[in-house]
Amino acid sequence: MRFFEWFGNLALFCGRLIRSAVTPPYEIREFVHQFDELGSKSLPLVALAGAATGVVLSLSTRDSLIRFGAKSLLPAVVIFSIIKESGPIITALVVSGRAAAGIGAEIGAMKVTEQIDAMEASAVNPYKFLVTTRVLACMLMLPLLTIVSDFFGILMGWAANTVAEPISLQLFIHAGFKSVTFNDFLPATLKTLVFGVLIGVISCFQGMNARGGTQGVERAATNSVVLASLFIILADVLLVRLILVFFS
Amino acid sequence: MPGKDAKPDSKKSTPPVQVKSLSKSFGKQVVLKDISLEVGQGETLSVLGRSGTGKSVLLKLIIGLHKPDSGSIRVKGEDVTKLKLKELNEVRKKVGFLFQQAALYDSLSIEENVAFPLRRHSNMSEEESRKRVRELLASVGMEKDAHKLPGELSGGMQKRVGLARALALEPDILLFDEPTAGLDPITASEIDDLILRLQKEKHMTSVVVTHDIHSARAVSDRVALMRDGQLLIEGTFEDLQKSRDPFVMQFLNGS
User: Fold this and answer.
1) pLDDT beyond 60 at B1
2) Does B47 share its domain with B162?
3) Number of domains observed in the structure of chain B
4) What's the domain range around B151?
């Protein structure tokens, strides 16, 4: 029963969010602030996670490919898997850990200390000022962060491979991108728009529904991360299937 | 024509805050039961009662943060329970609210907190609004801390800033939720003095919710005492003192 109630409330929340997002006045300053904040705080983490994924992919694929006698395919396999899947999903999960917890805790704290009430009392719609700006920032920032993660992944994938067997970056890129088309890159990167919306909506929803002092804030932060990560993985299953249908 | 003349007159005499047979429950818990109140122009009404008797909920109902189960609330003649959000927001701009813990936005500086309603609801230029913020902060004695964050201030100082923010849009009505709770007696009486000064200078209509009997005595024209979500007695302080009701006597004398 509570499960359905939760989804019902989430749907109502999304309805309010959409209404606030499409009607003026627009909180452009706050949006720019949130966009900047999210980008600058997530960038180092995303770059690091992307780089690590590149190294791991390169090392483990190299081993398998040698066994099958297909070593020359290594650049293509690394680049393909980073662009198609590991780049987007790793970025989304890292940002969900970083930003969802932050947003859930921040809005949750504002809720339990009556700051949201104060905002409404001064005739400012918190859905417009707090929620819309954050959801939009998450949505538009994720594809950009994904590109950063892809870049560092490919770079470090090459570096890890070069340690074992020197090959120029130029050759690595050339061999790798030979079979990668724009149709591989674009849908995989744009699907992170959906991940961004999930992170923003779920963390704002948890924050706005926080109740009961510091414990409520803690619950909002934890649930934001757990649910956002879970929904991202579930949505990915669906999106990968859809992309295969439309872009292959 | 007499009818025509009578109209603006009757509007003038309409009390700014009228609450009629108001009831509110949260789940099974009945918070307010059949409350009726009126606050006249320029008058200060204190709503007294023990902690947790639904006094704060009454204030939040007046400004439309909660919806009542039944009854009506008229603020400056408009029934806030029936208004759409846009219309409700127009009413809210005429009402200042000082929250119990001040509820300052903790990511914004003191100055930005006070400027927050101004930036959104007035056509002031950046320069004018900065000047107005300085005036407001000076009026509550906080101009020196304009660049600090709320977390760096004491409870009493936060309340002062909260008051400056509530006054930013020059409201006609002020709602105070426990303005002196959690403050030492000296700071509490300073806040009381600020409230009194506002009444004298701006003739504002105020509703003060409090359990602090000294504060209520200092600032109010009339008091209403609540018990278990119901209005027990209403009148001047003298009226209350004449009451033989044991609860009223206990509340006034503290024993």
Assistant:
1) no
2) no
3) 2
4) 109-170
Fill in the DSSP letter of residue A26.
P
With beta carbons less than 8 A apart as the criterion, state whether B78 and B172 touch.
Answer: no
Domain spans in chain A, listed from the N-terminal domain onward: 2-247
Retrieve residue B230's tokens: 């119901």
Q: Does A118 touch chain B (CB under 8 A)?
A: yes
Question: Which residues face B29 on adjacent strands?
Answer: B26
Say if B103 falls within a structural domain: no
Residues of A in contact with B97 (CB under 8 A): 118, 121-122
Q: What confidence tens digit (pLDDT) does each residue in B69-117 have?
A: 988 899 888 888 888 888 888 899 999 999 988 899 998 999 999 999 9
Write the DSSP string, A3-61: HHHHHHHHHHHHHHHHHHHHSSPP-HHHHHHHHHHHHHHHHHHHHHHHHHHHHHHHHHH
**Chain CA centroid to CA B9, Å:** 26
Which chain A residue has the Cα nearest residue B98?
Answer: A118
Over residues B157-210, the pLDDT tens digits come to 898 899 889 988 888 899 999 888 888 888 888 888 888 888 888 888 899 998
| B190 and B75, same domain (yes or no) | yes
Residues B218 and B129 in one domain: no
Q: Does B12 have pLDDT greater than 70?
A: no
Give me A137's structure tokens: 């920032």
**Looking at beta carbons, which residues of chain B come within 8 Å of A25?**
120
As a whole number of angstroms, the distance between CA B11 and CA B18 comes to: 13
Output the pTM of the full model: 0.86
Q: Please tell me the distance from the alpha carbon of residue B221 to that of residue B208, in angstroms, as a whole number.
A: 11
Same-domain check for residues B133 and B248? no
Residue B128 lies in a domain: yes
What residue in B sits closest to A114 (Cα-Cα)? B103
Q: What is the pLDDT of residue A167?
A: 84
Residue B7, pLDDT > 70, answer no
Picking from A109, A119, A123, the nearest residue to B121 by CB comes out as: A123
Tell me if chain B has a CB within 8 Å of the CB of A52.
Answer: no
Q: Which stretches of B92-240 are assigned E, i.e. beta strand?
A: 95-98, 173-177, 205-210, 222-227, 230-235
The closest of B80, B32, B18, B47 to B179, measured between CA atoms, is B47
* A120 in contact with chain B, both atoms CB, cutoff 8 A: yes
Chain A hits for B107, Cβ within 8 Å: 106
* Whether residue B118 is found in the same domain as residue B228: no
